[in-house]
Amino acid sequence: MVGAELSRGRWVYAFALVTSLFFTWGFAYGLLDVLNSHFQQVFGISKVQSTLLQLAYFGAYLVWSPFASVFMDRYGYKKGIHLGLTLYSLGAIFFWPSAVFEKYGGFVGCTFVIGCGLSTLEVAANSYISVLGSPKYAAARLNFSQGFQGVASFAGPMIASRWFFRGKNANSLDTVQWVYLAVAGLGLVLNIMFFFCDLPEITQDALAEEMHAVGIRNDDEPFRKQYRCIFGWVAQTAYVGAQVGVAALTVNYIVDQNVGIDKPLASQLFSYCQITFTVGRFVGVILLNWIDPALLLSFYGLACSTFALAVSFAPGKSGIGCLFALFFFESICYPVIFTLGTKNLGKHTKRGSGLIVMGVGGGAWYPPAQASIADHNTRRSYLVPFSGYIAMTIYAVGIVIDQAIKGGFRWHTISEIEERREEIEDHAPSPESPVLDDEKKVSEEFVEQIRVEERPANVQGPSLYLRDSSAHL
């Protein structure tokens, strides 16, 4: 089954339920960045030591994502979601004894387990939303779903500003254990909901058949030659590392700007940065309905690079203003890189999804690198994420150039599958009129031309048979 075959009711139900997973991911991620600063105060550790949380959380993506993609390839999306939610709840529940015994190592270990659960959910949810409908709107669809991750990610810092840094809680872990008990409960409730739901399975074979029916055979090449996906992993690694580094030290950056802002207010401003990020994501949904995703990502990448430099050198409130702008332009980057990297992968879809999600592992090593500089100069440390934005921009510009070479420069978003289908229909004889020999010959020559153009160079002999036109035309 493919997304286009679902009824409207089943599509809305599946879309809404899977979108709820992004809220779960965002809530945990939002809390993580504030805990980073809170633990510096409670445990008396340095900025570099506090980024062990990021190392554990995002390192789990690097280690676990390949296994998650293999698991879902064998057992399907629904069982993958159950596995992810189970790991997520287990990691959260063990925050309780870590808080009771005040063991920073325990928090790091629990964060790794939560990261394993969320990496599994990311492989499932990102891939599922991307293929749940027309490829033309995949980037817009994924941005909309991930917008709810943004909603949850600013809820975490707002909770922290209200409870973690107030009064006796400024040097206590009591509230941390209660918050993560609630997080574990949320994971359990979602697990039960998914158990009783009829989630339609979208198979790789169905996706491949849909592509092959119009002559697109990108997946005939082995996975190691799916260069857009492989370079997408590089771009995702660089971008996520930059994004995580920016967020992890936001509270420290705002306080260190010496404009009279303390940690509670800085945490609240961080939540406003996340609101800006979320607004940017929903603005991106509108833009991506018309503008080519690679072209828009190129522009946003340039903007991120520019504002990262400005944050590094601008003093006082002007630097904080540039930080808000940076959060806005980060908004669409992750989902657009994901959809560009997994586009038209056919039978390689789940494996490609696992690889792109594995790129989240960049968040494990960028923050320590940035924090090592921040221990001396927080402002200059933002040159580290600048390097990540440059790498992402090169990837986006490269796709724009590749598209221009192969089919002309694109301003508007398109679906190659839908365009090919329309071309075949235009060249097919009308079913209501008698088929003349000349008309039939033209139609057959056009379909054969498509097959020859898409045939890999190392394939000998006639191309694979294109499915009977009566099933698609």
UniProtKB/TrEMBL annotation:
Top-level taxon in the UniProt lineage: Eukaryota
This protein's name: MFS general substrate transporter
